[in-house]
Every structure is written in structure tokens, then in C-alpha cells.
């Protein structure tokens, strides 16, 4: 298959081994050492196994990452171990944004297992990492890639649902106010008669 084929990467992510679904060692004693996994992934991507300094949040900020986000990071590490990402040093500077900003937001709306079990969520993670790494998937142009990511985005979907809910609430409030006004007018009319 060709480089950065979405179907191939989705197939890869859906084969994520159960070991990557463990919690972070910062949350449970028998969990995965997430910082070590992140550092190893940086080394693998940039092909510099002696490098020691990587862009990682401070220990204080790491302590505030919730379990669902950590497990999503673990799953994304499995994805980044796909041969297409190995020895791609230009991606190193883009991974921080992916893990600690974009994936953090998406993880607010997606339970970690859904990144593997749900075809659309798996594709969302693939497209999110490709977007953050400024990679256009095979067979697509930039507009198509952006459109497909937008249509899959859990965060965007939640924003639309919230706006729809707020619009519905406004309509219901206006209807209630109109009904109350009509009842008052009817009472006033009845009182004058």
C-alpha cells in the first residue's frame, strides 16, 4: 500500500494490542510508563535513539491528564509505530500539539476504547494525527482531507449539538413566554367583561 493510506492506518489502529489500553503509571501502579512511551516514540519517529530531550509537559501538567486522555495517547503511540511514521524526523515538532492539545480536546468526547472499536473514531484519530503532522492522505487534496476530518471530528460534532440544543432552548423559552403573554391577555380580557 502507499504511504499514509487512511484505510491502511485505520486497519493498523484497530489492531492495537490490549497492553496499550492500560492506564498510565501516574494513575495506577501497574500501568504503563506513559512518559517513557512518549519519549520512545519521539526517538522512533526522529530516528535518534540517543536523544534525551523532548517536548513533554511539566510534571505538574502531566499530573492533570485524565485516564481517558492517557489511554488515547497510548493508542496513538501504537498508531505512530506504523512503518509510515518511523524515521520521519519532520514530525517530531508536531507530536506535542497532537498529543497534548488536539487529542486532549477530542478525548473529552471519545471514550478511549472507541478509538479502536468504532471505525469512525479510528479514522478520526488517523486523520487528526495526519492533520497535526501536516500530511495529506494518499489520494486526497488538502480541502478533501480537511473536509473529511471536520465531518468526523467529535469536538466539532459536540459544538453543533450544543448550538442546536441552545437554539431549541431559545425556541422553547419564546413559546413559553408567548403562551404566558396570551394567558395574561386572556385573563385581562375576561376580567374586563
Major β-sheet annotation: none
Which structural class fits the helix and strand makeup?
A: mainly alpha
Distance between the termini: 84 Å
Helix content: 55-70%
The count of β-strands is: 0
Q: Report the average pLDDT across residues.
A: 86
For the CA atoms, what is the radius of gyration?
A: 23 Å
| Low-confidence runs | none
What keyword list fits this structure?
mainly alpha; single chain; 193 residues
What does this protein structure show overall?
The protein is built from nine helices and no strands. The chain has 193 residues and is mostly helical. It starts with 5 loop residues before the first helix and ends with a helix. The mean pLDDT is 86.
Brief overview:
Helices cover 64% and strands 0% of the residues. α5 runs antiparallel to α7.
Describe how the helices and strands are arranged.
Elements: H1 6-13, H2 34-46, H3 59-62, H4 67-80, H5 92-107, H6 114-117, H7 119-132, H8 142-152, H9 154-192
Helix pairs in contact: 1-7, 2-4, 4-5, 5-7, 7-8
